[in-house]
Amino acid sequence: SYHPYNYSKTFAEQNPGFLSPLQMLLEMRQTMLDNGDDLVKIWASEYGLPTSLNADQAVAYQNQLKFIKDFLNVWGDGLTDAQMAQLPAEYQELAASWKDWVGPAFIYSLRDRLGLEATEQGSFGLYYFDEATSTWKLKPAGQWIKDLLDAQNPDPTDPLAALAASLQKLVQQVATSIQAVLQTTVVP
Predict the structure, then answer these.
(1) Residues 126, 142: contact at Cβ < 8 Å?
(2) Which of 5, 90, 98, 128 has its CA 20 to 30 A from that of 137?
(3) What pLDDT, in 10s, does the model give residues 10-59?
(4) pTM (two decimals)
(5) How crowded is residue 134: how many other Cβ atoms within 10 Å of its Cβ?
(6) CA torsion 70→34→41→111, rounded to 10°?
(7) Pairing mode of beta strands 42-44, 127-130
(8) 53, 71, 77, 123, 159 from 154: Cα distances, Å
(9) Is 25 exposed, middle or buried (CB count within 10 Å of its CB: 0-12, 13-18, 19+)?
């Protein structure tokens, strides 16, 4: 499990003089390989950017969108050629096999915490509470994720079918992982 938070640089953005979240991930993977954990995938079990860090709400919402979009695009698709070229040479081979060893990614959190939305911990949500209408509304990052999911599920009117398809995919991934472990650890 990895929580690649960084409030000043996006996930894939290089950070001269410091390890970027991406480089930390690649170092973790190399450590796993060095210790025989090559069949274990790394999950990003929390990621996000609070919107309380900037007094200008529009800027804060756009920053959250930028960070989440960068993270999910890289996590889901791997690095672009330009991002790969920026990596130090020792990380490039690992990054090339990205899809073989990354697992699911999770965004923290679905909605802001009422009463705490002006704080760092209270403003990670993809939804904010609109007091004028007393309703929850999507922030731009939430809308981008919704649009991304809608494109993958062309029939958003059938949420049970979408849930079933997601669960089926998850079960298949777990079964494949278990089968791989059994094949390497059990003598036939």
Answers:
(1) yes
(2) 5
(3) 999 987 788 889 999 999 999 999 999 999 999 999 999 999 999 999 99
(4) 0.80
(5) 7
(6) -50
(7) unpaired
(8) 35, 24, 20, 30, 11
(9) buried
